[in-house]
Amino acid sequence: MSLALELHDLLKTYLRRHGVAAITVDTADAWRLDAAFTLPGIGRCRARNVRKGDVPAFHAFGAGLSERSKDLFSPYPWNEPEKLKGAFQAAIDASVNRVDAAYFLEMEGEPVGHFFLWKAGGNPHARAHGVEVPELGVAVADAWQGRGFGGLMVRILTAVARSLGADAVELTTALDNEPGWQTYLRAGYEYTGIIRNPQFVDVTAVAAGAATAAVWRDERQMILLLNETKRDAVLHYLAVKREEALKM
Ligand SMILES: CC(C)(COP(=O)(O)OP(=O)(O)OC[C@H]1O[C@@H](n2cnc3c(N)ncnc32)[C@H](O)[C@@H]1OP(=O)(O)O)[C@@H](O)C(=O)NCCC(=O)NCCS
After folding, report:
1. Does residue 7 lie within any of the structural domains?
2. Atom of ligand 1 nearest to the CA of 179
């Protein structure tokens, strides 16, 4: 099934629970994704790629996250303002250059969700183990949590990964992040083990030796397997990652 058709189906499923109207999907592929719907009485909601000029959108999104949410969602150095703009620009460049598949969910033009697959364009670390496994991140602005957006974004990313031919999707989540844990379990993700994970950075850049991290934390590692024939190779790759993290 094409990514556009899969997005249409996902939004129709969301519609049945949340009363969505007027779905439009204008999506050629993961790098040109545009899917919108109307939540009656609330507004027009749109998922779109992160693009050039999005630094203000990143700042606006960050302003809607509580300290707790920033701690749980830590791909950017939230507490180091002098580094933040550069980190946002790096995320934009990685999206534009098709390294990461990165998106905003907007409500009436304001970013209320941010979701991405690091190294969706090809993960050299995973490839060295014979598998293609991008790494997922999602967050919903605090005022918009609990409306199904997180679950929807995780499912969109799963569809994106499938459209790109990934063997699996990996993610990590803090041990005490119950909403995250439930969101991933309900979207079909499996627990694989505890991993020591770098914070406030692109985790895949740290694994590649291209970035370093000052803060680390034990997290749950989870996967969604997309290619059953690669199960053993994917599980081996994830076990190697858990081992390697202990040595960094
Ligand atoms: C985790 C997060 C993305 C979830 O997004 P959300 O829009 O609030 O979640 P949803 O409304 O889509 O809920 C997803 C599922 O999890 C369940 N869920 C959410 N919070 C829950 C909780 N505290 N207890 C039990 N179930 C919960 C929902 O019932 C739903 O399941 P269902 O579809 O079977 O009903 C969001 O809370 C968030 O951004 N938190 C801060 C940042 C963060 O933790 N990011 C993830 C880092 S790993």
Report:
1. no
2. 20
Give residue 150 CA to ligand 1 midpoint distance, Å.
6
Convert the pLDDT of each residue in 179-190 to its tens digit. 999 999 999 999
Angle at the Cα of 70 (from 180 to 197), degrees rounded to 5? 65
Give the pLDDT confidence of 141-172 residue by residue, as tens digits: 999 999 999 999 999 999 999 999 999 999 99
Any domain includes 13 = no
Q: Name the residue type at position 78.
A: W
Write the residue with the smallest CA distance to atom 21 of ligand 1: 179
* In-domain check, residue 149: yes
Substitution site in 140, 185, 195, 224 for ligand 1 pocket (most atoms within 8 Å of beta carbon): 140
Of ligand 1's listed atoms, the one at least distance from the Cα of 145 is 8
In a domain, 11, yes or no: no
- Min mean pLDDT across 43-47, 83-87, 177-181, 214-218 is at 214-218
The set of protein residues with a Cβ atom below 6 angstroms from ligand 1 is 69, 72-73, 138-140, 145-151, 173, 177-180, 182-183, 186
H helices of the chain, in order, are 3-18, 55-63, 67-72, 81-96, 124-127, 149-163, 178-186, 203-207, 231-247
